[in-house]
Structure formats: structure tokens, C-alpha cells
Description:
Chain A has 250 residues and is of the alpha/beta class. Chain A is 41% helix and 25% strand. Chain A is built from 10 helices and 10 strands. In chain A, the strands form 2 sheets. In chain A, strands 6-7-8-3-9-10 form a 6-stranded mixed beta sheet, sandwiched between helices. In chain A, helix 4 packs parallel to helix 6 (148-160) and helix 6 runs parallel beside helix 7 (178-193). The longest helix of chain A has 16 residues, at 178-193. Chain A is globular, with a radius of gyration of 18 Å. Chain A starts with a helix and ends with a helix. Chain B is mainly α and 255 residues long. Chain B has a single domain (14-249), classed as Orthogonal Bundle (MetI-like fold), CATH 1.10.3720.10. Chain B contains 11 helices and no strands. The longest helix of chain B has 34 residues, at 15-48. The radius of gyration of chain B is 21 Å and the shape is flat. Chain B starts with 14 loop residues before the first helix and ends in a 6-residue tail after the last helix. The chains are: A alpha/beta (250), B mainly alpha (255). Bound molecules: adenosine-5'-triphosphate and magnesium ion (MG).
Amino acid sequence: MNQSNANTNVVEMIDVCKRYGTFEALKKVNLSVRKGERIIICGPSGSGKSTLIRCINRIEQHDAGSIVVEGQELTGAERDIAKVRREVGMVFQSFNLFPHLTILENCTLAPRRARGLSKAEAEDRAMHYLSKVRIPDQAKKYPGQLSGGQQQRVAIARALCMEPRVMLFDEPTSALDPEMVKEVLDTMIGLAEEGMTMLCVTHEMGFAKQVADRVVFMDGGQKIEEADPQTFFGAPENDRTRAFLQQVLH
Amino acid sequence: MFDVLFQRGFDGRLYLEWLLSGLGWTLALAFIGWWIAFAIGVLVGVGRTSKSRVIAALSRLYVEIFRNIPVLVQMFLWYFVLPELLPTGLGTWVKQLPPPWGAFFPALLCLGTYTAARVAEQVRAGIEALPQGQEEAAAALGLSQLDTRRFVVVPQALRLIIPSLTSEVMGIYKNTSVALTIGLLELTAQARQISENTFQTFGAFASATIIYLLLALVAYRLMLWIDAKYHIPGTSPSKPARKPLFGLFGKRGAA
Ligand SMILES: Nc1ncnc2c1ncn2[C@@H]1O[C@H](COP(=O)(O)OP(=O)(O)OP(=O)(O)O)[C@@H](O)[C@H]1O
Ligand SMILES: [Mg+2]
């Protein structure tokens, strides 16, 4: 194996397949992500975008092919998976904050339990990232008391508190009212500018153009096209990509 | 009608004292039994949702056995049959426990384990009612399965089922009267004794009934208070268990 490749590829997916019963949700998907890269994944509903990124932290288990994250191959071993998950942050469409915990507790739970930080260390770190997403003043509130946009920013901060090597986003703005989309995208742009490795499923094409190093187009469980944003939006090769772009851009 | 309470029995004590002593045993059974039921119920309920087939099957077995045998039969099993199954020395020791304890412990174990099976089913239902995203988010953060249950799943599930746990608290409290069948002088047994000694059946049982009702009311209000205390800010309030009678005394217009 090429040594430099092994060191720089944060995520390496080779011929990854995933079935639900007899339905093939992923058909031999290949994808590699280098450190600091920002990948945007788009495609029609049901094309396997969520499945793809959920396989990266093994929220879903792939059936064939291999996935290597930070040098660790994802197999059955429980301990290895926990190790990978600590290095991979994830932000969900529906926020999935823990409603019975305060914002601060949401952010300190995993660092304390899974990283072994003391309460004080975890709280310092939480306040740092909450400031970064610009809601430090809400720390004592509960998720149900915040707006959708604020909740999603907390969810980002919560993931960042684990100081992950790569962040996965699954349509982070799709459940938000239009006026709240910008505050979340701005937070993500900030992260991208700091060099965070990111994989993001989104239909926000303006955001894609602004931050993406590469755009991946999925359809029917396959990676149909992968290109830099200029090529992808300017001169897509595939008919299905063109048809999709026409729908989302107009 | 209640003047019987202020007459003295053959032991020189007021019948009121007889009732209160019965009440003491009833409360002790209900209270300690509840915490046994709650502890076992949470463990078994979580076990029901375990990914481990063995743990899930064992938990299921527990629930099916303890929930489906009538309480009265279970009471007899604990009292009459268990001592026979124990090694001889231990069995004899159990049989020779001094009077209230010889009946109290079997009754406590009976009510605790029976109610635990019912609590376990509520806990399981509560866990299954949580959005899938909660466990996913916890897993994605790198929390272990145990931590996910302890800090994310169970605290939310328990809050969700406070109304149905209220029914179980009422249930164990009412079932304490079954302990009279193995000779524990709890509230109902004392009422019966007073009635037999004085032939004032109505006065004796009316007093016991009123005590049962008042305490049920207290327990119900206590559960409402606990529900309010553990209510998660920013979420809609839970619906109290439907109890038409207590509804009259309790919060009005709660729907
Ligand atoms: N748990 C599951 N069981 C069965 N089928 C599933 C499951 N999860 C996803 N699928 C199917 O797999 C396919 C891909 O799903 P996936 O959620 O990855 O799509 P997606 O591209 O994220 O779509 P969307 O834009 O709607 O989120 C869909 O056809 C879906 O119905
Ligand atoms: Mg999706």
C-alpha cells in the first residue's frame, strides 16, 4: 500500500455495497476523502446519500467492500467502531439533541464519558465551541427552548466537542425554516474555512459552489459523477446529473 | 358508624390502633415493594430491548412468568412452596421466622417481583417509543451502548412512562391486601379482625375503604408532582393517566 496515501486519506471507501433485504441501497461505491477536503454529496431522494455517509461511522453496516476511516478498517469489532466514532462527528437533519439534557450537558456528555475529560475540562471545551457557533448564552437552556437553527448549531457544537477528524452532515438544513438556513450554513462555512474535513449531503447548491472541493452525484445507489464544482455545475458529463441540476437550480 | 374505632379490643388497644398497625404493614409492603419492582422492572425492561438475544429472551421469560400467574397463586408459591424448594436448613429457618416477618418477606418478594414484570413492560414500551435518532446520535458521538442506555435512553423513557407508572404504583398498593391470605395483618386483615370481634362489619370496612381511597389520592398527587418535577423544559406536558375518579379531585380539565 502507498504510504503517503494511507496517511492522508481520512476516509477510503472501496466497492462498498449495502442491501436492505433484497434492495440494493449502495452498489459498489468508491470514494476517498483526503484530509481537509470538503465533499458535497447530492442526488435525488432515495439515491443512497444518507446510507453512504451513515456507513462511514457504521450507523449502518455495509455488506461488502471496505471502508477505512483514519487508518482503521470498519469491521465487526465493537471497540474499533467506538474508536472510529470518536473521530467522526455527525450532524443529522432532525438535530437529534438529547431533549432531557441542557445545551451544556448535551455538549459535555460524550467528551466526559467517551474521551474521559473532567467535568470542568468538558465544560470549558463546550463553552468554546458554543461560542464558536455563537450561542454561548443558551448553555443552561434545554433543546426544546431553542429555535431550529439554534438547535442545529448546538448539534454542530456537540459534535465538535469530540474534536473529530472529519464531520459528516446529512441534510443539516432541510428541516429548518428558510430564515434559519443561513445561520447554519454560515457556521458550516466557518468550519470549512478552518480546514475541517467535511462530507455533506445537501441540496444547497449555493453552499456547494462556495465550499466544495468536489461534488459527488448519486443516483440509484451508485456514484454517477464526481467532479470539482466548476466542472460539476458548469459542464456535467452525465445526463442524469444534468437533469438533476436542472431541477434543483431552477 | 366509626365509633367502633374508639372501642378497645381484647388486647386493650383501640381498634383504631389495630387499623393503623395494619396500615403500617400495608404502606411498608407497598413502599419497599415498589422500589424492588422499580429496580428490577427497569433492568428487565432494558433487557427486553437488548441486542443480545440471550438477555432479551431471559427478560421476556421473566415478564411472561411473573405477569401471567395470578398474584394470589404467586403469594402462595412464595409462602408455601419456596421454603420446600430451599435446602432443608434454610427452608426450616424461613418457616420459623417470627410472625409478621414470616409473612411479610414472602409478600414483599411476591408483590415486588410481580409488579416488576409490569413495570418492565412499561419501560420497554417507553424505550421503543423514543425516536430512533436518539440512539443514533449517541452512537455517533462514540458513547458505549451502556452509556447510551444510562444517560440517553432510560432517563427519557422513564419520563415518558410516569403516567403509566402511576397506575403501577396504585396497583401494588391495592395488591397489598392479597397478603392477608398468608396471614399478614395488613389493613384489610385488620378490618376483618375488627369486624369479627365487634360484628360492626360496616364500620370496620368503611374505615379501611376510606383510608385506601385517601392514600390512593395522596399517591396520585405525588405522581403528578413527580411528573411536573421531571418535566423537560420546552416540551409539551405529558398526559396524566386517566383516572376518572381521581380526576375529580386532581387537576381539573387535564386531558
Ligand atoms: N432501514 C431501511 N430499511 C429499508 N430500506 C431502507 C432503509 N433505509 C433506507 N432504505 C432505502 O434505501 C434507499 C436509500 O436511502 P437513503 O436514505 O440513503 O436515501 P437518500 O439519498 O438519503 O434520500 P433522501 O434524500 O430522501 O434522504 C431508499 O430507497 C430507502 O427506501
Ligand atoms: Mg437522506
